[in-house]
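INTERNAL AUDIT FORM
Audit reference: QA-55
Scope: verify that the stored structure record matches its stored sequence.
Auditor: D.O.
Record contents follow.
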Amino acid sequence: MAGIYIHIPFCKKACNYCNFHFSVNQQLMPQMTDAIVTEARLQQGYLNEPVETIYFGGGTPSLLSGEQLNHILGGIRNIFTVSDQAEITLEANPDDISTSSLEVWKTAGITRLSIGIQSFFEVDLAWMGRAHNAEQALACIQLAQAAGFSNLSIDLIYGGPTLSDDHWKQNLQTAIQLKVPHLSCYALTVEPKTILAKKINDRQLEEVDSDKQAIHFDILMDHTAAAGYEHYEISNFALPGMRSKHNSSYWSGSHYLGLGPGAHSYNGISRQWNIANNSLYLSSLKQESIPAEIESLTSQQRVNEYIMTSLRTSEGLDLSQLEKIGNGFIVANVLKLAGKFIAQGTLIRSGNFLVIPPKGKFYADGIAAELFQL
């Protein structure tokens, strides 16, 4: 299964915590959509299998006009073999969702919406610098469902200084009561070169409390499990049959092509990433050149990537797959390093799989890093 990711690098405003590549100046949007289609044409040989998922990320893809969205999707369908049952996801901000925009997206062929709710409380949204308010956060889900979008995901952020335990429980209960089939829930992370990092460094805001985040993560696992959600990846929860196919392909090592400034691609033997600069990206594509850096992956890098991604999933690390990527010596070494975590109960060996149980999920990335082959 192959996927295509399209990075739309424009936003209405900067959120305090965001470190993704974007610009608040939307004047280059028409040129950007043309350049993305040009890049797709230049990359038509990158994927040698049918495209099963297309994902519009950003930035804020819901800022695209219907004409721009159709231009990109039409170009991709003309260049690649796209499955009739492809999952086509659009990330959307609540303030961009209306009856008319939902109709445009359905007509264009969008089959799944990923909505950046983050919180249903005004105090949290204001602290994060979000463009929408609490009323829009609630109304947009109901509008999307009324328009026939049954395949919905929402993003929620926990562990921030303005979010109490009770409000976090209410956020989860609101999503559950609305029967949102997929939740992506992230601990607030202070990324370098963000507004949030600067304010914390300048002592304008308090530090993020990791103990509070751990408590919120436990609340998250308890509430979603009780409501029948499958905790299929560290940050992702789905009702039966509603996993994100696109994101699941990342974690399973499937090939994908990234289009747009800052987008990443992977074909099994190398990774490449486009320059994260709108003007340079546009000028390069005007010259029929893709401004990307390419890194050929060593066996060691592929082993470590598999360890990291697989341990974040509910299926866990398949030792037979690890042996295919590396060798028997690496499997033996990983099992030796895993011993202390198995003894602690933060890692379980189940047959040929290593799986992180609920007790260790909050520390999954750290456990994976300890198993890396250096």
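Auditor finding: record pair retrieved intact. The chain has a mean pLDDT of 95.
Action required: none
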